[in-house]
């Protein structure tokens, strides 16, 4: 099966430049009041509420639209949970903030601490940084467990990196270890089409529709290990992705 990629025309490159300009121009006006709000009330809800406003501006000016389908209970009904989503492009982050109906914090790879502007936003957003070492992973899981205990949800991109072609990669086990340890459900999420609308690797973009499908919570079975829970979640994200973006799922499943 072939995979669709954004056209690398002059128009797509100009639209990418416009999208980056929108990010640069409209982030600073939100920065100062958002930081003040986070200092007064440093919670996931504060971050989520402020950035939804920013996301609406970015989506509107860049021509992105969002369609969200939730198959299970609402975020408020589910309560603290570990969300796991596929990762195709930078556009996934604002799309998820708009699509989710309950506040959460991202778990991001530690190397993003060195990325200008992005690092500052993530630090202020109560993001949990996960370094890919044994000790770094344990610290991140301990911090995430504290967030869950305080009633906040966390969101992982368990592939560990962006796929760029839309295909689902295998999952790292950290998110599933955390869910079992904390006794909270895994909520699978699939994003479809973001790599076609914004491809920062090819530096192309175009306006269009982002599909987000949020599945029903998955609870660990008695004595289930992280590998088994990861496999079940992978299969569910792949199913959701097939509904959100059928062209992104090959005839033979990629496997966990």
From TrEMBL:
SUPFAM superfamilies: Glycerol-3-phosphate (1)-acyltransferase. InterPro entries: Plipid/glycerol_acylTrfase. The chain crosses the membrane at residues 15-37. One of its GO terms (molecular function) is 1-acylglycerol-3-phosphate O-acyltransferase activity. It comes from the Bacteria. Residues 81-194 form the Phospholipid/glycerol acyltransferase domain. Keywords: Acyltransferase, Lipid biosynthesis, Lipid metabolism, Membrane, Transferase, Transmembrane, Transmembrane helix. It holds the Pfam family Acyltransferase. Pathway: Lipid metabolism. GO terms for biological process: phosphatidic acid biosynthetic process. This is Phospholipid/glycerol acyltransferase domain-containing protein.
